[in-house]
Amino acid sequence: MAFTKKQKGDMTTHYEEWLQKSQAVYVLNYVAMNMKAIDEFRSKAREAGAEVHLVKNTLFNRALKAQGFPEGKFLEGTSLVGFAFTDAAALAKTFTEAAKGSETVKVKGGFLGKEFISDKQVKALADLPSLPVMRATLLGVLNAPASKLVRTLAEPARSLAAVVKAHSEKAPTAA
To answer: Domain limits at 73?
Structure first.
């Protein structure tokens, strides 16, 4: 299907907007995926706070150049591009799960910020815990010293209360 110059300009503008908003961009070769599988993949990406779009490679390369990204030399054949707006690791996990166990569906690579990352680096990023898990871990690390301090400050009073209780329990039997 041929596109008019205006349609191509609009598509490039959309690509540029998505590139500006995203923390990371991943590219998948979707040659053997049917429409049902692509729709399921898109819904998983939406759950990760991202969007997935089928792109025209030449127009997407124009958008990359316009936004200051290095040229996407891996953009050959069919390209399904994911834009991670909130959690880059969650979208990387979605992409690697889609490619797992398939000979034809492969992660081509992507960009983290404006730096090119290979398919192996996308896989390494997918192995990271998700953003909520990392936040909980960080919160636990930050809370540990405070809770230790509270226990340390409360220990003398607890010890004194234990001594008084033991002494009070002992006193009636002696009388």
So the answer is: 5-128
pTM over 0.90: no
Per-residue pLDDT tens digits for 65-105: 888 888 767 778 788 889 988 888 888 888 888 888 777 78
Q: Are residues 62 and 38 in the same domain?
A: yes
pLDDT tens, position by position, 120-148: 888 888 888 777 888 888 888 887 887 77
Same domain, 41 and 12: yes
Q: Which of 128, 147, 164 marks a domain boundary? A: 128
| CB-based burial, 25-51: b 16+ in 10 Å, e otherwise | bbbbbbeebeeeebeebbebbeebbbb
Q: With beta carbons less than 8 A apart as the criterion, state whether 19 and 64 touch.
A: yes
Token code pair at residue 70: 């290095």
Long-range contacts, stretch 13-18, CB < 8 angstroms, 24+ apart: 15/55, 15/59, 15/60, 15/62, 15/63, 16/63, 16/66, 16/67, 18/51, 18/53, 18/83
- Name 27's bridge partners: 81, 109
